[in-house]
Amino acid sequence: MLEIFRQLQAEDPSARLILVPRHVERCGAIEAEMRRQGAPSLRWSHLREKGTAPDTPSEILLVDTTGELTSFCAMAEVIFVGKSLCRHGGQNLVEPAAFGKAIVLGPHMENFPGIMDDMHKARALIQVADRTELAA
Hints:
Blueprint: H1 2-11, E1 18-19, H2 27-36, E2 41-43, H3 44-50, E3 60-62, H4 69-75, E4 78-80, H5 94-98, E5 102-105, H6 113-121, E6 126-127, H7 131-135
Parallel strand pairs: 1-3, 2-3, 4-5, 5-6
C-alpha cells in the first residue's frame, strides 16, 4: 500500500492514506514497518488528543483505536479492502458498501462468497488481480 500511495501522491499531491487495521494490537508493528520504509505516519489517538489534523498529505494516518471504522468509511472516497491481495480471504466489505463508497479489492475474498456474488451482480465493486492493477 505504501508504494501505491507514493505513486498516487505523485499524480495527486492531495491524496491521503488512512490505514485502519482490523486488529489494533498490530499498530506497533505496522508503524515500525512504515518507519523502516521512510513513510511518515501519525497515530489517530495522538491527533485526537491534540485536536489537530495531519500537517501534510504525505503523513499517513494510522487508526489505532477501535469502534471508529464507520467514521473513516464515511469520509473516504475509495476504500481498499485489506487482506484481499494475499491469500487471507479478505476483510469485511459490508461496512464500506453501506456507505455507497467506491470499493476496490483483490482476488482473495474467500471469506465472503455470498456477499461477493451479490456485489459482483450489482457491479458494486472493482476487483483487481494484483498490486499493479490496484495502482492503475
